[in-house]
Amino acid sequence: MAATMAEGEPPPFTHEDNRRFLQMLRDKKQMLGIGSPKVEVQFQDLTVETYVRIGRRELPTLPNCVVNAAQELASYSHMCTPRKRAVKIINAASGTIRPSRMTLLLGAPGSGKTTFLKALAGKLDLSLKRKGKLMYNGDEVNSSTPQHMHAYISQYDLHHAEMTVRETIDFASNMLGTNNEFEMIGEAARRKHDVVNEVDKNLDSFIKATTFGEGRNLTTNYIIKILGLSECTDTLVGDEMRRGISGGQKKRLTIGEMLVGLAKCFFMDDISTGLDSSTTYEIIKVIQQMAHLLDLTVVISLLQPPPETLELFDDIILLCEGQIVYQGPRENATDFFEIMGFKCPDRKNIADFLQEVTSMMDQKQYWIGEQHRYHYHSIEKFAESFRSSYLPRLVQDKLLLPNTNTIKGEVVKTGSGLSRWNVFKTCFSREVLLLKRNSPIHIFTTIQITILALVISTIFLRTNMNHKSILDANKYVGALFIAVMLVNFNGMIEIAMTIKRLPTFYKQRELLALPGWALLTPNFLLSIPISLMQTGLWTSLTYYLIGYAPSFIRFMKHFLVLFSMHQTSMGMCRLLAAVARTLVMANVLATTTLIAIFIFGGIVISKDDLKQWLQWGYWTSPFAYAQNAISLNEFLDERWATEFHYENANTIGEAILKIRGFLTESHWYWICVSVLFGFALVFNILSIFALEFLNCTYIKIYIQNTINVES
């Protein structure tokens, strides 16, 4: 230990250090006037329900999917009503969650804990319908409620595998705008407006809590210390294909990602998954200190908390089949069930007792009356008894009173409110980082383009290419077609890369208020230099080896067409990925789309051979515009000016354009290039709308599969 300390490592950050730091933090916030009122969460007759199909139609078979989709379309036009029944996940729950207290949410799997926490945090899925009242300090929660006032911590650990622990928490801190607050408090701790000893003590406490390694974000340093992530700070998160941190460390990272926001309400869902009992206790102890000293409102759901962890909580909510069976002080939980005739044995874990006493299989063993008088007490009976008799007793004994320190209608001040420019800078910095970490992918695609360019150049080598006849021109048409096609296929890498990032984006969209444009705009801007490099490499290797028109201007125009087509292809693939949301569906859509644009591109079937009612396909195919532009650039060169009469064409160049059904006027080149850039812009804008408004229903399948693989 002495040797370790001699190397300059910081001393361990104990619970007493954290308590002292939080006390100093509270005092300084009050002194600076950046404190915020307590938040009391009230819910009355809170009901969450969804609609499910009746009978065999609920099974996800192919015929059912087709019939269900047809019924949904018919229902929009009021032609029929789909056969569905309402299922209540939360059933008329009422209660109050008081600030400055730790509330434990208990319930068996399937009891509705996750839905209840999401309802309290205002993060319900669009497929769920909420009824009843939900209020923060007496104001009903709606879309105008500040997003960063409350934080929901999911039970799923979704992070970018290419980022380290510090970088992940830094990004969340920057998005939530919390580092400035710590800097203000640190500056206040350095001012000597009090006795010297007190200032030195506060400054020492602040430095010890917020200094770690080379990190400049003070809030991140503090979160890393209290969650025990110091050993893996600069380790990649990792995934199934990349080695990274352990499952328990991922869970702590998930907690820290939202805890760094310093919100006033935290709703944490099964945060002990993957953690041992000792680590769970340490984390809950830290959160308890934050709740008590920073006046936070905290609700945590745990499946089987050990006794020492249970004692850290002030209140308990017992949720069974969507109904609240008990809500009140932890010490009074067993008293209620004892009144009902059920007693917890001396050596029995109280948390296990509370979850088993409502179960039909385990209830009888806790009956303290005569055995012949025992009968099963339903959940409805427990809930009704609690509301009618025991709840008034708690209120009468002043054990469950509303908090009088909350101020109705007062706006809670948080560290949020970032400008769009700051959001863009934060997301752009992350995209640059991810680009560097994913550099092997781009290096591979560059090598792939180089090899393909050399292969194609040897097939159409200029020594075998002439420009004196229509047959020679046809060879050049084939070379130009392959160039456009390969550039188009090269953009398909965006499908896999976008699909991989969607689960994390949907989580951050919901919890960090990350907009779709903040993800796509930096991605689009950073793709421009990559596209310039790859299409420039292809053009440089193939243009003169194949023997296209020997003019630098035409070389640059040739490059401009391929660049615009590459950007169009990447934008189209981003849109398909954002709409499909799963890799299988995206590949199906991409294959169908590519086949369509190739068929209508003017090479497989000439424009002149298309039926009149299919002409729209030609004019909506990006491939057609690219092929027209690159062909015009080549065949309107002087070397194709050999006299050749075909209809109204007078040169070989014009004749081949006419024969293949291409446009023949030179001004169409710039029109086609402009249309291609327009396609790229439209595809990216539509991708932003898809990221913003499409829900993540399909992503849940991916999340569950990922959890199963890791398990």
Write a concise synopsis of the structure shown.
Helices cover 54% and strands 11% of the residues. The chain is α/β, with parallel strands linked by helices and 711 residues long.
Report what the structure shows.
The protein is α/β, with parallel strands linked by helices. It has a domain at 441-708. Helices cover 54% and strands 11% of the residues. The chain contains 26 helices and twelve strands. The protein has helices at 2-6, 15-32, 62-76, 113-121, 165-176, 179-190, 196-210, 218-226, 247-259, 277-293, 307-310, 333-339, 350-356, 379-396, 420-437, 439-459, 470-490, 493-511, 516-546, 552-580, 583-599, 615-619, 622-635, 652-659, 668-693, 697-710; strands spanning 41-53, 84-97, 101-106, 129-136, 139-140, 150-153, 265-269, 297-301, 315-320, 323-329, 643-646, 649-651. The strands form three sheets. Strands 6-7-8-3-9-10 form a six-stranded mixed beta sheet, sandwiched between helices. Strands 2-1-4-5 form a four-stranded antiparallel beta sheet, with helices on one face. Helix 2 (15-32) crosses helix 7 (196-210) and helix 5 crosses helix 8 (218-226).
